From TrEMBL:
Keyword list, A-Z: Oxidoreductase
One GO cellular component term noted in the UniProt record for this chain: cytosol
Native organism: Drosophila yakuba (Fruit fly)
Similarity section: Belongs to the D-isomer specific 2-hydroxyacid dehydrogenase family.
Chain ranges of the D-isomer specific 2-hydroxyacid dehydrogenase catalytic domain: 47-361
Lineage of the species this protein comes from: Eukaryota, Metazoa, Ecdysozoa, Arthropoda, Hexapoda
One matching Pfam family: 2-Hacid_dh
MF (Gene Ontology): glyoxylate reductase (NADPH) activity; hydroxypyruvate reductase (NADH) activity; NAD binding
Cited SUPFAM superfamilies: Formate/glycerate dehydrogenase catalytic domain-like, NAD(P)-binding Rossmann-fold domains
Keyword Manganese: no
Domain spans labelled D-isomer specific 2-hydroxyacid dehydrogenase NAD-binding: 152-332
Xref: PANTHER family: 2-HYDROXYACID DEHYDROGENASE-RELATED, FI03731P-RELATED
Protein's gene: Dyak\GE12350
The protein's name in its UniProt record: Glyoxylate reductase/hydroxypyruvate reductase
InterPro entries: D-isomer_2-hydroxyacid_DH, D-isomer_2_OHA_DH_cat_dom, D-isomer_DH_CS, D-isomer_DH_NAD-bd, NAD(P)-bd_dom_sf
Length: 364
């Protein structure tokens, strides 16, 4: 069913129906057999894996046909990466190191396939990769459910004041003799607004439909399919309407020059005073200083953030002093199964690129 959301062109079947939204087409197997035929040694391709903690599932797939070179340093030592990338045919780019002209130059002109192991690719100089005509894959979709689960967790935590409540316990400040102590916002009958309504946004909406919300509004460039709108009682609106009418606003869009900083003081001033803001996308979509002011002055009710600007966030950042900000260290896709699936998809992307076939999830 997720296939419908992500518009994967190939009807994909095979070993990994257990990876939601993905399984692998016969095309790939054919590709591998071709590789085997043309590579009598079976290891004609060199592939760099840029991080030692890339889950084994993907590496095992690559190993069938490729010699694996792996960056060992954690955190990544750029010099080691630039040295080991020299002369490789493919790269499984684990981690968020800049993937730019410097790295591509270091690799050399034989490089023919790259896949990241992430959905967002803001650390990749995509025009530069494109200019060199190197196929680039990424791993959206497989992380949708893990990120959506976390978003719902943040939404509840921020609306029901988990962080503030925990601090009350720590500081021995129970005031449960008050009848209105730590009252939060209801999810039932609410309007949930999505800034960005792709696979992740829709996975969040699907989960929230179990909480008896009233309706969904969304702001995107393009309208989603009518049947998706009907499924979630969702309506496309302009940004100002989204801000004015939503009880919860969930940021689920990519970071681009158009989305950078759009959640600023002007935006917060158009939101309901009871509104809860959730960001599971990228920190820079929010002007964090303006958010701090909006939360501090109770211009909006609370925020739940899995992403910040910068990351890592300093432990002395003023955002962390607020009772009404629930802040997590970018753990949206951090489940064991999701990461294993991401490495599998990334490996398939790399193999397809090497075989001269379309990638499972091309980034451009
Ligand atoms: C907020 O961003 C919008 C553009 O998205 C801009 O027009 C507006 O001036 C900004 N407001 C502030 C306070 O920076």
């Amino acid at each position: 069913m997720l296939n419908r959301f992500i518009g994967l062109s190939a009807a994909i079947v095979g070993r990994s129906s257990r990876i939601s939204g993905f399984a692998f087409s016969p095309l790939l197997k054919a590709g591998n057999q071709n590789q085997n035929r043309t590579m009598s040694a079976g290891k004609a391709f060199k592939v760099l894996v840029t991080h030692p903690e890339v889950p084994q599932e993907g590496i095992d797939l690559l190993k069938e046909n490729c010699e694996i070179i792996q960056v060992q340093s954690v955190p990544t030592n750029r010099a080691e990466l630039l040295e080991k990338i020299r002369g490789v045919d493919g790269v499984l780019w684990g981690g968020h190191q800049p993937l730019n002209a410097e790295a591509l130059d270091a690799a050399g002109p034989q490089l023919k396939s790259i896949s990241t192991m992430s959905a967002g690719i803001d650390y990749v100089d995509v025009p530069e990769v494109k200019r060199r005509k190197i196929p680039l894959g990424h791993t959206p979709t497989v992380l949708n459910t893990a990120v959506a689960d976390l978003a719902v967790g943040l939404l509840i935590a921020a609306s029901r004041r988990f962080h503030e409540g925990r601090k009350k316990i720590d500081n021995d400040q129970w005031e449960n003799y008050h009848l209105n102590w730590l009252l939060g916002q209801d999810i039932r009958d609410s309007t949930v607004g999505f800034y960005g309504f792709g696979g992740i946004g829709q996975a969040i909406a699907k989960r929230l439909s179990g909480f008896d919300i009233d309706k969904v509004l969304y702001t995107t460039r393009r309208r989603v399919h009518k049947e998706i709108e009907e499924e979630f009682n969702a309506k496309k609106v302009d940004f100002d309407t989204l801000l004015a009418e939503s009880d919860f606003i969930v940021i689920a869009s990519p970071l681009t020059k158009d989305t950078q900083g759009v959640f600023n003081a002007t935006a917060f001033n158009k939101m309901k005073q009871t509104a809860v803001l959730i960001n599971i996308a990228r920190g820079k979509i929010v002007n964090q200083d303006d958010l701090y002011e909006a939360l501090k002055s109770n211009r909006i009710f609370s925020a739940g953030l899995d992403v910040t600007d910068p990351e890592p966030l300093s432990p002395t950042d003023k955002l962390l002093t607020l009772d009404n900000a629930v802040v997590l260290p970018h753990i949206g896709s951090a489940t064991k199964r999701t990461r294993a699936d991401m490495s599998t998809i990334a490996a398939h992307n790399v193999l397809r690129g090497l075989a001269g076939e379309p990638m499972l999830s091309p980034a451009y």
